[in-house]
Amino acid sequence: MPKTIKILGTGCSKCQSMIKVVKDVVTQHHLDVTIEKVEDVIKIMEFNVLVTPALVIDDVITIKGRVPSKEEVLALLTP
Predict the structure, then answer these.
(1) What whole-number percentage of the chain has pLDDT above 70?
(2) 54 and 7 Cβ atoms separated by less than 8 Å
(3) What CATH number should be reported for the domain holding residue 29?
(4) pTM higher than 0.85 for the full model?
(5) Is 15 a catalytic residue?
(6) Is 19 one of the annotated active-site residues of the chain?
(7) In 13-44, which positions are buried (b, 16+ CB within 10 angstroms) versus exposed (e)?
(8) Which terminal CB of the chain, N or C, has fewer other CB atoms within 10 Å?
């Protein structure tokens, strides 16, 4: 079953960097995931996140307020 990734952020440079890191990892490792970009502030607030970017995997907030490394994203996405 594919994982669902949501990247919460309003489009700042850190948010753009997180999107690139996540997409690179998914592409390089051929992972079966769905990536959704959430830019709506109201929807971001529903996750109770005050700092962006935030990485949500299967509705669990895993990282917030910083851009993760590719290795860190890969570790979160693989068993």
Answers:
(1) 100
(2) yes
(3) 3.40.30.10
(4) yes
(5) yes
(6) no
(7) eebeebbebbeebbeeeebebeeebbeeeeeb
(8) C
